[in-house]
């Protein structure tokens, strides 16, 4: 039977395993909104069960985190983690002062909210980061995502919104948002076989919760969200990329790892819905925020690799120039490398030598040591 390469086609789209099911779900919600309820049972559960699927996803994600990371991984991953979350907190504080919990209701920036910006900035695309570092960086930098994966989930977004002075979340909700991740970490670090078993489920869960998230979206706002999403994606790369670049340089890197982390994870599109479920105050902002973050995933997945490749090319060119300069300094000059000629082997130029008939002459080629009468010339 002929094979149709569906998976390959989906993966050609940046963040495809998240974006494509999300769009399919939103198409059904827009043009056939009653379809899931009409069929009911498991079909309805598949389109409405985003939260249970996400809970399982975070358990599996936590199992893949190794707490026994080497000091370099802790230093590198910790620096990038703190820098990116710190940038999101700063953006949240500034925007929270002007916007509060609700999105902008009219004008060119209608739909933008503090929730959308913080959710887009808080989470790094782990698959994209590791792929870029595998191509342009060091193997040690790939493992730094072990620490950065702590960004996953709504916990840090809740903390950021609280720090920004917006509606706070009760402590049981905060603990509950990170508990599945913590349980997964415990299982994965106590038993390597559990880590391997649960870790394999992480990519499998993504399209399922993306489909359920899309089923709650209205595509009538997609064009507006797409334009704003492009702007938000560029803002994420620039606003987080600059401090990440310098954080990488300060920890002994070349800046490539910082550029590779300046993007948005696909599962970040689920965070606004989780925040709204935890605190209904954000319900209105979550509607547009989900679309904006989804668009941001695509934009950063395109722009971040271009920026990373550009920085890597410049770093390599600078390294090659330095190596060439060092090679020139280490290689002696041609004159200095020529061995000195022994004095005894040098021809005697301009020295007067006596002939047997008593007449002196200049010899410029043969040394004076030559004896005997000169040969006659014909």
How would you describe what is shown here?
The chain has 378 residues and is mostly helical. The chain has a single domain, classed as Na+/H+ antiporter like fold (Up-down Bundle). 66% of the residues lie in helices and 2% in strands. It has 19 helices and 2 strands. The chain has helices spanning 6-11, 16-31, 35-39, 41-48, 50-63, 71-99, 114-122, 126-136, 139-142, 145-148, 155-163, 171-190, 192-199, 202-214, 222-250, 256-260, 271-278, 283-330, 334-337, and strands at residues 351-354, 360-363. It has a two-stranded antiparallel sheet with strand order 1-2. The radius of gyration is 34 Å and the shape is globular.
Question: Concise description?
Answer:
With 378 residues, the chain is an all-alpha fold.
Write the layout of secondary structure elements.
Layout: H1 6-11, H2 16-31, H3 35-39, H4 41-48, H5 50-63, H6 71-99, H7 114-122, H8 126-136, H9 139-142, H10 145-148, H11 155-163, H12 171-190, H13 192-199, H14 202-214, H15 222-250, H16 256-260, H17 271-278, H18 283-330, H19 334-337, E1 351-354, E2 360-363
Helix pairs in contact: 2-14, 2-18, 5-12, 5-13, 5-14, 6-7, 6-11, 6-15, 7-11, 7-18, 12-13, 15-18, 17-18
Membrane topology: Multi-pass membrane protein
Protein name: 2-keto-3-deoxygluconate permease
Function: Catalyzes the proton-dependent uptake of 2-keto-3-deoxygluconate (KDG) into the cell.
């Amino acid at each position: 039977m002929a094979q149709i390469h569906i998976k390959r086609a989906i993966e050609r789209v940046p963040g495809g395993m998240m974006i494509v099911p999300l769009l399919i779900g939103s198409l059904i919600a827009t043009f056939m909104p009653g379809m899931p309820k009409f069929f009911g049972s498991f079909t309805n559960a598949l389109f409405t069960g985003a939260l249970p699927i996400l809970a399982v996803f975070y358990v599996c994600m936590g199992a893949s985190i190794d707490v026994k990371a080497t000091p370099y991984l802790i230093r590198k991953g910790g620096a990038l983690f703190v820098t990116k979350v710190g940038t999101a907190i700063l953006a949240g504080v500034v925007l929270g002062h002007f916007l509060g919990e609700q999105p902008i209701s009219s004008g060119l920036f209608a739909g933008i909210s503090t929730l959308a910006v913080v959710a887009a900035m808080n989470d790094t695309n782990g698959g994209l980061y590791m792929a870029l570092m595998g191509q342009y960086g060091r193997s040690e930098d790939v493992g730094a995502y072990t620490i950065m994966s702590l960004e996953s989930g709504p916990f840090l977004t809740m903390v950021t919104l609280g720090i920004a002075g917006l509606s706070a979340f009760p402590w049981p909700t905060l603990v509950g948002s990170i508990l599945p991740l913590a349980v997964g970490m415990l299982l994965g670090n106590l038993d390597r076989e559990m880590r391997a078993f649960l870790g394999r489920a992480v990519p499998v869960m993504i399209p399922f919760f993306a489909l359920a998230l899309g089923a709650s979206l209205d595509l009538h706002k997609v064009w507006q969200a797409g334009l704003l999403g492009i702007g938000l994606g560029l803002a994420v790369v620039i606003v987080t990329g600059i401090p990440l670049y310098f954080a990488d340089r300060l920890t002994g890197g070349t800046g490539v790892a910082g550029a590779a982390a300046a993007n948005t994870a696909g599962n970040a599109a689920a965070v606004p819905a989780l925040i709204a479920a935890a605190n209904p105050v954000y319900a209105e902002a979550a509607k547009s925020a989900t679309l904006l973050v989804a668009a941001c995933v695509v934009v950063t997945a395109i722009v971040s690799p271009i920026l990373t490749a550009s920085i890597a090319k410049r770093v390599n060119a600078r390294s090659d120039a330095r190596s060439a300069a060092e090679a020139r300094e280490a290689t002696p000059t041609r004159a200095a490398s020529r061995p000195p000629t022994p004095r005894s082997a040098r021809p005697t130029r301009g020295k007067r030598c006596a002939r047997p008939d008593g007449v002196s002459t200049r010899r410029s080629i043969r040394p004076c040591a030559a004896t005997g009468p000169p040969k006659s010339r014909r």
